[in-house]
Amino acid sequence: MSNTPDALLGPADIRELAAALGVRPTKQRGQNFVIDANTVRRIVRTADVRPEDVVVEVGPGLGSLTLALLEVADRVVAVEIDDVLAGALPATVAARMPDRADRFALVHSDAMHVAELPGPPPTALVANLPYNVAVPVLLHMLETFPTIERTLVMVQSEVADRLAAAPGSKVYGVPSVKANWYAEVKRAGAIGRTVFWPAPNVDSGLVSLVRRTEPLKTTASRREVFAVVDAAFAQRRKTLRAALAGWAGSAAAAESALVAAGVSPQARGEALTVEEFARIAENRPTGNAENRPAENKERGEQ
């Protein structure tokens, strides 16, 4: 569906655009622009983007991935926080893919604060996420837009490992459990440093998330389950009996909740599935103080 063979951006195009806009990628916003057309096409293929998809992209930057998505998807909505980049992207799309420009929309906003998107609801999320906010942005988008069925994000390799980690892994933690609340999560490949400008000093990885066809079966709310997850990993070296004492009201109350959930009080958070965390939340002792800090301030990253 590409308009011309050179519709996508190459290294010279990226540098030319950046120079014209006076843009220098900033560490503060975790900006590393993809300069390789083969890489963005690979991302679109790996994301299983389909002709009927409405894709939301977070952090489009100069538009490398945006153009590759527009080649395939029915519609692309890009969320960009940077004033200069947000201002320039529609013109880039119009210049390089004029007959697809009406299928593109830009939302100039911080993705963490986006509550709605223009047009039909999104069916897919594909993004090169800034390393410093990758997990909170991912979780926010999955929670806010339940119509997103398939997600593919490019993140720092270590973050990719944490998101896709299974119980018992050394890197299994808050991001692993919370991502699994929404979706089946797996590593979907590695990305070399040379396809970015500037080249980052860390490796990157692709993570695929396919939303659960049916929500987790539990009587506990997402917030209640996430409160247990946060408490369990806040002191991950401690047994759950000790780590959940504050959440339950006392160590004895935590033990009662764990036993009722069929979980050993001597276990640690890194050994539990999201289903087990949900069972613990269901068995929280009643009569404890409400509005605990862990419930009011969820953490996305650990």
Automatic annotation (TrEMBL):
Region called Disordered, residue ranges = 279-302
Q: Where would you say this protein principally sits, based on its record?
A: cytoplasm
Which segments constitute the Ribosomal RNA adenine methylase transferase N-terminal domain?
Answer: 39-213
Where in or outside the cell it occurs: the entry states:
Cytoplasm
**Catalytic activity entry:** adenosine(1518)/adenosine(1519) in 16S rRNA + 4 S-adenosyl-L-methionine = N(6)-dimethyladenosine(1518)/N(6)-dimethyladenosine(1519) in 16S rRNA + 4 S-adenosyl-L-homocysteine + 4 H(+)
Q: What is the E.C. number?
A: 2.1.1.182
Q: Name one Pfam family in it.
A: RrnaAD
Q: Where is the composition biased (Basic and acidic residues)?
A: 292-302
The keyword Cytoplasm is annotated on this UniProt entry: yes
Q: Which InterPro entries match?
A: KsgA/Erm, rRNA_Ade_diMease-like_C, rRNA_Ade_Mease_Trfase_CS, rRNA_Ade_methylase_Trfase_N, rRNA_adenine_dimethylase, SAM-dependent_MTases_sf
Gene3D superfamilies, sorted = Ribosomal RNA adenine dimethylase-like, domain 2, Vaccinia Virus protein VP39
Annotated keywords: Cytoplasm, Methyltransferase, RNA-binding, rRNA processing, S-adenosyl-L-methionine, Transferase
What role does this protein play? Specifically dimethylates two adjacent adenosines (A1518 and A1519) in the loop of a conserved hairpin near the 3'-end of 16S rRNA in the 30S particle. May play a critical role in biogenesis of 30S subunits.
- What protein does this entry describe? Ribosomal RNA small subunit methyltransferase A
Q: Which organism is it from?
A: Streptomyces vastus
